[in-house]
Design a protein that fits this description.
Largest sheet: 6 strands, mixed, barrel
Number of domains: 2
Order of helices and strands: HHEEEHEEHEHEHEEEHEHEHHHHH
Strand content: 15-25%
Distance between the termini: 31 Å
Helix content: 55-70%
Strand order of the largest sheet: 4-5-10-7-9-8
Number of helices: 13
Shape: elongated
Structural class: alpha+beta
Oligomer: single chain
Length: 405
């Protein structure tokens, strides 16, 4: 019963100074709210990265050609002619646990149809590309292996291209002109949306990579090769086998650097998440400072409260209250202030996260773990910063306290 009566006395003391209690909790409110918002933004950014990487397909390995060096001017990966169609075919036939390969050629072109024109990306890919990327069709079908081997003048359109060139009907079976060359439309891609980099994935025209090499890039080498492994567990072994195969095919002796680069989705995701985590950590550090300031505010007000209520403490001790009762009373007041601020801060953080999502269109994910952690941390702040004032109150001499004016 003594514990509950102590709680009652502590709550009554806080209720007597409502405005001061609210202002004291303001630092915790701001700190916890900021923590919730920053964590939700960080989790949202991470989930967006994971979704974008997942949109590339399952167990995808990317092989890049090396960098070119022309008259001292170096280009990035994919610029040198170090990967060929034969390399891609060798990977598919000789590397164990590889289930699909799609050589890739990229470019940009103005496409025309129905008296309209549109500038878009051109991707040369194999017939396996859509299954690798888990990208369904909304109409028609993907071009075939025969189209790839025969440099077929066929194409598959992204939804953005369809909207701009064929606003009134189904384009399947019709033709578009790409750099004045006619291509028959055999399929339309389902809507994919924007990538992590803000690129419209639907603004694309897919061609057989052989046709793209022959009619657009006019080069015999490949800048990229997409490879799909049978399982995620086998990806490290498949990467190593690809590297060994390409070194052997390119006659790279021991000590010579690779003229290609092999990367998997997880490495790309880790690189993106590292940046997101750094930003989230910096924002979280600012929010942590707010919580620290809030805790110092609680300690300051509790010390003032001890001074103001010295005579009250003396009277309570004189009628039988122990030092532990006084300590518990002031500690409860500090914890209640902190938890009250934490609860309001959590609500404000949730509301703020949804407002950011709706106004700025930022991805946010509010997790139960972050809410529980914020609430627990606010309680811990109350205990840590309330203990010293509570101990000071408990150590007062009853006679000196009764004399205090």
């Amino acid at each position: 019963m003594r514990f509950f009566s102590t709680i009652f006395v502590a709550l009554r003391a806080l209720r007597r100074n409502k405005m001061r209690s609210i202002l004291t909790a303001l630092g915790i409110i701001i700190g916890v709210g900021a923590v919730i918002v920053t964590v939700s933004i960080g989790d949202g950014a991470q989930s967006q990265v994971e979704a974008t990487i997942a949109s590339l397909g399952q167990n995808i390995i990317l092989v890049f050609a090396g960098s070119a060096n022309t008259a001292g001017a170096r280009s990035g990966y994919g610029g040198a002619g170090t990967l060929t169609i034969d390399d891609a075919q060798a990977i598919k036939s000789e590397v164990r646990d590889v289930i699909a390969v799609s050589p890739e050629v990229r470019g940009n072109a103005q496409v025309l149809a129905n008296g309209l024109n549109w500038a878009t990306r051109i991707l040369g890919e194999s017939e396996d590309y859509l299954s690798m990327r888990q990208w369904p069709l909304s109409a028609g079908a993907m071009y075939t292996d025969q189209d790839v081997r025969g440099d077929g003048k066929v194409c598959v359109l992204g939804q953005t291209v369809v909207n701009n060139l064929f606003p009134d009907g189904d384009p399947v079976g019709k033709s578009i002109r790409v750099r004045n060359l006619p291509f028959k439309i055999v399929g339309v891609l389902a809507t994919k949306g924007f990538s992590l980099q803000g690129v419209d994935q639907d603004d694309v025209v897919l061609l057989p990579y052989t046709s793209a090499m022959k009619r657009f890039s006019r080069q015999s080498f490949l800048p990229f090769i997409n490879v799909q492994a049978d399982s995620s567990d086998r990806m490290p072994a498949v990467e190593q086998d690809i590297a060994n195969l390409l070194r052997d095919r390119h006659h790279l002796t021991q000590g010579r650097e690779d003229d290609f680069t092999v990367r998997d989705q997880q490495e790309i995701a880790d690189a993106a998440n590292t940046t997101n985590r750094t930003i989230a950590f910096m924002l979280g550090a600012v929010a942590g400072v707010s919580l620290l300031v809030g805790g110092i505010g609680i300690m300051n007000i509790m010390l003032v409260s001890v001074t103001e209520r010295t005579r009250e403490i003396g009277i309570r001790m004189a009628v039988g209250a122990h030092g532990s009762d006084i300590r518990m009373q002031f500690l409860i007041e500090a914890v209640v202030l902190s938890l009250m601020g934490g609860s309001i801060g959590i609500l404000l953080g949730i509301v703020g996260s949804h407002l950011l999502s709706s106004i700025q269109h930022w991805p946010v994910v509010i997790s139960t773990v972050s809410i529980v952690a914020a609430f627990a941390f606010s309680g811990a702040v109350g205990v840590c910063f309330g203990y010293y004032p509570a101990s000071k109150a408990a150590q007062l001499d009853p006679i000196e306290a009764l004399r205090y004016e």
